[in-house]
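User: Predict the full complex structure for these chains.
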Amino acid sequence: MDDADGRTAPRERKEDRRREKIFDDVIRIISNALEISPTEIKSDIDFNSEFTFDSLQLYEFVIDLEEAYNVRISDEDLDNVRNIDDIVDLICNLTNKD
Amino acid sequence: MHSDEEIMSEALVRIFENVVLTEEKSLQAGYFSNLSIAEMHTLTAIGPYEARTMTTTAEDLGITTGTLTVAIDRLVRKGYVIRKRDTRDKRVVRISLTRSGKLACRMNSKFHRVLAKHILGGYGAEDREHLLCLVNEVDKYIEQQLRRYDDTENVRKTAMDVAYDSRKETIDNG
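Assistant: Here is the predicted structure of the two-chain assembly.
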């Protein structure tokens, strides 16, 4: 939340930085998995239609994320993931639970 | 015309056999064609996360640790399992999955999930709930029967008990 001078509270700035780091990691992992440039990956890209992930690549991506963040991503979680923002939100939520 | 019992019993056996057969064929056609069904089930019992002991894994699979050791040797050679001695207690051996093992395990659980999703997909919410309830009852009953045979020394006695119960049910039902 912004204060009276329009500045963002320190706690929120920290959260934003954490989210940005997770976003960068997700882009890096996808770019490695699909062997494409990170600049070609946009945050609102539809996960199901625009990516050429097959099932195996999808689970390789998931395992990389699980190992990087020490979390467990279930298939039920993956059902709700539509784009990169969703996966970033999911990792944020899973790491917040710890 | 078949009796309800005949239809049920034939369907149960057919479902079991066809699930295993479909799983086997999907394995042979997929990325993990060098794994047998039994090996895939061993990977699933180990699971994609924490390392497990040989004893608890063998218990879950309903096999002896000797049989599991042979299976694990093969899976280590194929690159799906890592075997390590516990750092604190050297007598304990811990097994975990390699990256390939984790991938195989997750792909296999996806196979089962897709199968279940398609079966349930044909039903509305109420029928779904009813179906799950019935399947759960069948599952519980068969599990209960399995437990009666857990102690192998009691197999003969258990077989006699089961025969007695079945006769009694037949008489009670007229």
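Chain B has seven helices and three strands.
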